[in-house]
Design goal:
The protein has two helices and two strands; from the N terminus they run ββαα. By secondary structure, it is mostly helical. The chain is globular, with a radius of gyration of 14 Å.
Length: about 80
């Protein structure tokens, strides 16, 4: 089940279990876990400060393209 959600991403959070991260090698998988951890801290901090304002759709789309490029070129 988890593997089916890793087809287009390098990390999955499982309810009541934690995170699974993958990479083309151990160093890159660890880098992914650090990115997820940092993102979680930013989101938690934003919630403490007040309402979270989502990124604009274009920003999300642009970053998705960068992520897909990095993943397809084995940068992660």
């Amino acid at each position: 089940e988890v593997a089916s959600h890793l087809t287009d991403r390098n990390a999955v959070l499982m309810a009541n279990h934690g995170m699974v991260a993958i990479g083309s090698n151990l160093h890159k998988a660890l880098h992914v876990t650090e990115l997820v951890d940092r993102s979680a801290k930013i989101i938690w901090g934003a919630r403490v400060l007040g309402t979270i304002v989502p990124l604009p759709d274009k920003t999300s789309s642009d970053f998705r393209n960068v992520y897909e490029f990095m993943r397809s070129n084995k940068m992660w």
